[in-house]
Amino acid sequence: MNQDEPTAQPQGDFFNNQAERLQADLQNFSRQVASCDKLIRMANISLNQIDDRIAEAVHVEARAAAIVEASGRAASLAATEAATNAVAASVAQLTAVTVQAQQVCRAIDRSHGKAVLWNAAYIACALAACLLTGYVTYRIGKAAAITPEIEHAVELAARHETLLNKATDKEKKQIADIVARRAKNR
C-alpha cells in the first residue's frame, strides 16, 4: 500500500469491515445452520420416538386384534357348544315326552280294549239272563197251566164286569150297599 494514495487506507478498512461483517454473518449463519442442524436432529429423534411409538401401537393393536380374534373364536365356540347342548337337551326331552306319550296311547288302547271286552261280557250276561228268565217263565207257565175252574172263574168275572159296566147309578148304589152289609156281617 502506498501512503501517497490517500484513499487506499479507508478502502482497506471498508473491505476489512466488510470482511469482518461477512465473517460475522458467516459465523451467525454457521450458528443458525448448527441450530437448524440441532433442530433437525431433535426432530429426527422425535420422529424416531414417534416411529417407535407407532410401531409399539401397531404391535399392541396386532396383539389386541389377536386377543379379540381368539376371544371371538372362544365365544363362538362356547355359544356353539351351548346351543348344541341346548338342542341336544331339547331333543332328549322331546324324545322322552314322545316315549311317554306312546306309552299313554298304548295304555289308553289297552283300557279301551278292556272296556270293550267288559261291555261285551256285560251284554252277553244280560242276554243270557233275559233268555234264562224267558225260559224259566215258559217252564213255570207250562207247569202251572190254567185249570177249568180258573177258566170258569175268569169267565164269570168278565161277565160280572160287563154287567157292572151296564148297571145304572141306582143299581150301582144298591150293589155298594149289599157289599157294605156283607163286610159288616163278617
Q: Radius of gyration from the CA trace? A: 71 Å
Quick one: how many beta strands? 0
Order of helices and strands: HHH
The major β-sheet equals: none
> How many helix segments?
3
Total separate domains: 2
Helix residue percentage: over 70%
Low-confidence stretches: none
Distance between the amino and carboxyl termini: 210 Å
- Report the β-strand fraction as a percent range: under 5%
Structural class: mainly alpha
What is the topology?
Layout: H1 8-143, H2 148-166, H3 169-185
Give structural notes.
It is rod-shaped, with a radius of gyration of 71 Å. The termini are far apart. The protein folds into two domains: 15-145; 148-186. The longest helix has 136 residues, at 8-143. The chain is mainly alpha-helical. It contains three helices and no strands. The mean pLDDT is 82.
Task: List the main descriptive attributes of the protein structure presented here.
186 residues; mainly alpha; 2 domains
